[in-house]
Amino acid sequence: MHWILRRWEKRRLRYPIVMEFDLFYELAVPDSGARSEAQVFHETLEELCVAETCGFRTAWFVEHHFMRGYSHSSAPDLVLAAASQRTSRLRLGHAIVPLPYHHPIHVAERLATLDILSGGRIEFGFGRGFSPHEYAAFGVAMSESRERVAESLAILRAHFRGGPVSHSGRHYRLEALDIVPAVIQRPHPPLWMAAVSPESFDLAAQLGVGALVGPFKPWFMVRADIERYRAALLERPDQNARMDGINTRVGMTLGLFCLEDGQRARAVAKSNITWFYRELLRRTAPVLEKLHASYEFYRRIGGLKFLLEKTISLAVLETAGMVVAGDPDHCIHRLEQFSAAGVDHLLCAIGAGGSPSDVVIESIRTVAKYVIPHFRK
Question: Is the pLDDT higher at 218 or at 358?
Answer without folding.
Answer: 358
